[in-house]
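User: Show me sequence and structure for the first protein, then do the same for the second.

Assistant: Starting with the first protein.
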Amino acid sequence: QILPLTKKTSIALVHETEYRIVNGYFSNTFSSTRSMKYYYHRFVVFDENFVIKQCTDRFVFTKPGIEFACGLAPTEGGFLVSFGRSDVATYLGLITRDSIDRALKPV
């Protein structure tokens, strides 16, 4: 989902997945290793040609693990974000435009 930010830019909230091998005994798989998924997010700013101009460092809303942002809506002074956690809970969060602007870095 890409939303207008200024006359010449747009913003999106994207996610990336990192797979980690975890050692230990897992009774449900009778294995000593397992691949764990960790989801992270970034705000990305595009120019009018959809070239990436800025992005934030990756972040989580609650804690590392399975977390998936699925909605972004503009509000007065920021954005409303909907996201899920561990495929069992849903949340809404408000993020100020100022906090996003401070976190954005040139690409």
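Switching to the second protein now.
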Amino acid sequence: GTSGLSAEVSPAAPSVALGGSTGFTVLVEDLNGNYPAAGTVIVVTDTVGGTIVGPDSYDVADSCGAPPVPFGASFTFKADDDAASGQVYISGITPSGIETLWVVNID
């Protein structure tokens, strides 16, 4: 597709303890509410106050007729030892090259 992407974060307001870890999922769909096009990439481009533990990118496979549901990209943020909050910068790039940026605030 040639449309951009939209996303919701679940939980909506991830929180983390000092030096702790928290998980969140970015639920991505195209602007028409459909499953993102096969070949779409969801990737963490930067973090503030911590690091991503585990996978930091996902490739969307063909939905093969899946119902119109979002694609879930799950990430784990580990706060720095002196941080109890942070930000995760995420980019969604469609096969046609349209890039959408999101910032996940973690408190």
